[in-house]
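Problem 3 from the worked examples.
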Amino acid sequence: MRLLSRFASGFHARMFLVLSIAIIPIFAGLCVYAYHERNEIVNVTRRSTQSYVDLVAQHENRLLEGYEQALATIAATRVVQDRDWPGCNRYFAQLVTTRSPYVNLGVIGADGRILCSAKQPDSITRMNLSDRPYFHRALNNRGFIVSDYLKGRISNLPTLAIASAIEMRDGGSGVVLFAALDLRELARAEHNVRINKDAHLTIVDRNDTILFSSERGLAPGEKLAGTVASFDAAATKSARTDDRPDTKWFIARAQAGTTSDPSALSILYEYPAMPLMSAVDREFWAGIGILLVLSLLALVAGWKCTQALIGRDVKCLVLAAKRLRGQDFTGRLTGKVTGREFTEIAEQFDKMSEALQFREQQWETAVRKQAERNTILQRVARNQPLDETLLKLVAFAQEHIATSVAAIVLLRPGTRRISQCLTVNPPAGWPEELIGLDVAALPPLRNPDRPDRPKGANDAHGANDTDAANDDLPLEARWTLSIDSSDATPLGALAFYYPHPHSPTEDESEHGRVVADLAALAIDRDRTARALIQSESEYRLLFETNPHPMWIYNIDTLRVIAANNQAIEHYGYSHAEFLHMRLSTLVMDSSPPPGGSPINGSAAIPNLIAQTHRKKNHEDILVEAAYFPLHFMGQEAMLALIHDVTEQRQHSEALQ
């Protein structure tokens, strides 16, 4: 089992699969062709079956047309037109002879009484045919109509009637001429156009009642199994009788009738399909077998040829692919394979190895850059010292932009003048020389401690690092990038120094832009943190040293969240007691304290509110309070400014 699994996953199995795939379309195409030929034979047989049943239908149509013409001639005779019914009886009796297709001929009055008949039984005077459907159809329709299966009342035989209303010469009407046909006359079609002794012909009326059938066991007057509409010319069905083995049949159908009643009869023809299908299937499967043997021989021959021609070269390619999978990009295939196609594949393999090796180096560099960026971003997020962070960025820029010396200069707020210069190992006194200068006029950097370059690396002019003369040249700021805040305010610049004129590559520009953006982020965050610290300190100082009592409360919970020293002293509560207090403890008025959302920007000076407050010693005082909405410690709050007017009110009342 293991050997079979190893073979199935190896080169030989794959080559076998390729050859099989090449053979399968040919084999499948030949099989489809053979199948098409088989179906064509079947279709020809079906068309022949339909042609036969159409021929029978034409025969029945001509037969009925002959009867129709004969009745039209009879209707025009003198004995009928003169209403000579006794003479008519004798005339009709002469027409109905032993070899005549008619069982009976007669004339029916408008009331259904038999006026004339070739047959004259004793009970004919009592007979009335007004209940016959064909009688009413003949009266109500012009032309000759064909009845359904009938059991003749006069002849007492199974018949099929053809009838038509007679127009008399004297203008009278309401008289119907009918002819009862012998059903055995329908069998003439089978004897005239029968093409197969095992086939079956069945003729039924519009009610699917059998008029004639060549199949044993089916007699006239029986109902056909199913309906005529359920039969299709292309369908097959199982045999209906028990005395034959089950088989399949081709079935075709057509309709026949007179000109005015064209669908009176349905003709069904059943042709045995099993003998034909058996012969066709034998030839079909024999052809498939021969095709299969030829395909296997072609497969074996192709297998041997591919083993001899391309086996060795494919193994070389497999080994090369394994080396690539193991991330060994040093091996080369050129010269180890034969053939033009395999040589081209080997060249592509070698180019792919070189590209993968280059991309691996790029990926390692990108991973290292991203790790260093993350480290710097962590320093910025932790608000570590700005100078250290900017020096890390300078080193990061120099590491990935070869042969350059990088420097970050910071500007004085609102000017283009340099306030600080940061670079790695600058010459003594050089950073101080830049302070106060315009950022657009950066001086050269003389005798710097230049970063090492990879052995054999060239600058933009092809100068090799081993050329010691370049080390004595001053470095000029060859290209710079602006460091701007989020609102486009200039914060500084990132400058790159080279001994020769240098235009940055796309990668160098991208890396420099990343360093400049990180520097802007660090400077912005540092200045924002400093401004917040200063703003918070100033606010605390104003709040704590205000000569009036002040407190801050949450507008949702109405709990005090801050109080200044004057409030603590004036109301007598400790700081801890204030922070656990609700306004209902301080404010005695029943009206709710002011609330609302903080106002963006400057707020209008609110009106003073006269309130009664209670101190810790339960002394009530009269105050004028002003409330200011604000954000405080991440909460929606109100700042209350309290002015005690108790003594003023008392003095006013004493003067009054």
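Problem 4, a separate protein:
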Amino acid sequence: MLKSLSFAVFCLLFLASGARAQSPYLLLAEVKEQYNQGHLDTALVICDRLLGMPIDEPLLEEALFLKAYILADKGETEEAKKVLKEAVGKFPDSHHLPRAYFYLARIFKAEGDWSSALGYLRLIRKHYPESEVTPEAALLEADLLLEKRRYRMAEELLNWLIQRARERPAVVAQAAVKLLDLYHQLGREAEIGRLLGRLGPLDRLYSYAPDILYWQGYVAYREGRVAEAQRLWLRYVNLAPDSPRIRRVFYLLAEMARESRDVIKARQFYAYVASTWPASKEAVLAKFRLFQLKKNFYAFFGGPTPQDIGVILPVLSMICEKWPDDPVVHEVWPLRIELVLKQKGPRVALELSWEFLSRYPESPGLKEALFWINRSLVAYDRLFLSQKNYLGLLNYHWEHLDLISKVRSPEHWYLVGEAYKGLDLYPQARRAYARAWELKPDPALTPDVMASWAEVLTSSGELEAAAALIEDLLDKNPRYRSSPAILALRGRLALRERRFGLARELLLEAMSKSADLESKLRLWPLLVEATIGAADFKALERLFSRVPKNFPQKRLLLLLKAAGQQALSSGEVPFALDIYEKALKLQPDDPELLWYQALCFERLGQEAAAEEVWQKLSSLETQPYKELAQAMLKARELVDRARWEVL
């Protein structure tokens, strides 16, 4: 009897368990339970079993979407995508759509189809703004925009998310960190502090995104609050010891120690960064800083050894090539040029120098770099001269003149003059020496420049100037700088180089200090030429009103013509007319003067006077002015006839 009762109970339990196992709703609950526990394979088996049963649409909807999620989480993206599209097609009004779109966006992002991914993410934000997956979708959308460098759109999205998700600190913290990183990447450092201020109490965000602490410390470091920065960063190290930013923290701690001249602590931090994260950017920068600190002691031992230079040069090259926008490159480039000059010679150093000047014309490290560029340039020049390769030096000079002009090296221009002198090109040599003199050579170079300049002048037959330069070289007396001969010589050189303002100033001073009339007579035409070039018409009027006695008429006519053309081209037509009339008093039938006089009359609206001059020109036999005057008269006749016809 007892055995029969036990068997009956067993049969009832077996039947009940079978019925429970076959219940679709119980199977769905079991799928969800296995999925939530991370047993994806088991959940998928049960889900397939459920989908193989005849079930109603609500149950089919849940099972189909759930299967898609399981497949996606397992990494079977192709199958997941297929099931998701099937589910979305069958149930277009399902409450699962936001989550399904999110999963599809993740799959497309993983496949590199960022356009499709963005399309699904924007659908979520537009049609399901209150969905629980919307913040996650917005974060994923921001990641995509940042990857594609759509920085403005990413910034707007992250700001929108921070404002909308105030009650979800985890989302706010993640969005804030992305935005802080973006501001730093774009160099908008001021925005970092402002964003941290907008986030409200930051303690509530630390557990979700410890990087907030890092950025707080960074702002304190930038503002010079060293103690606060150290406190925040040490707290960050304790809170997120595995963060990839830790190496940056230690590097910045080393920077703070270096800036406060705590060399020992700085070296410890730099060495720790270089040894702990050897493949990181911070490690490379730390090696550069360690060499800098060590270089200060090299001065007592004759500079860095070739072995030390060989070790650090690849590090400097890596910084310049991999991180060209990092501010530290402005410190790296001058050191790199210096060390390359010492190890590889001036040619290679100059190649680097021109690259640096082309890429960073306004670099903060320009002054230090120019010192070593000048050293390289002069060394290369002297190499050419030692081989008597004068053309090689001059070709190099003219090929790189734009960049050489930025160096402003008097020694280079002196050596260029030496090359011209070696080729017996004395006018060019003289200009090169003048340029060297303008750039103010140091006292050790000045005698060489002046001696070579005097030598060239002597070879050109300008003995007085050469004597003055030699006298200045021998006596080294400052008063010779203001002597009339030296001033006149410098004035002539400035005039030849078309620096008219300077030439006029020097020649005026020379004339005021010249005692004899003959010297003033020689300088007056040069002063007129300089004043014409400077387009100072008031000064020209004064000069032509006081023409020296016995001044050659032919030379005066040339000066008047040049002054008239300069005035006419500058729009000073009344002055030009006055000049041409003065010239015509000296040579009344000069066709060129008459032609320009007529042009002045016409531009001043004095048509009758212009026509009278053209009539006079047309009666002369001088070509081409006769034909031009006849053409102008004919054109005037046609214009007058047209006016009468209109009237």
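Solution to problem 4. Residues 1-21 have pLDDT under 50 and may be disordered. The domain at 552-647 is CATH 1.25.40.10 (Serine Threonine Protein Phosphatase 5, Tetratricopeptide repeat).
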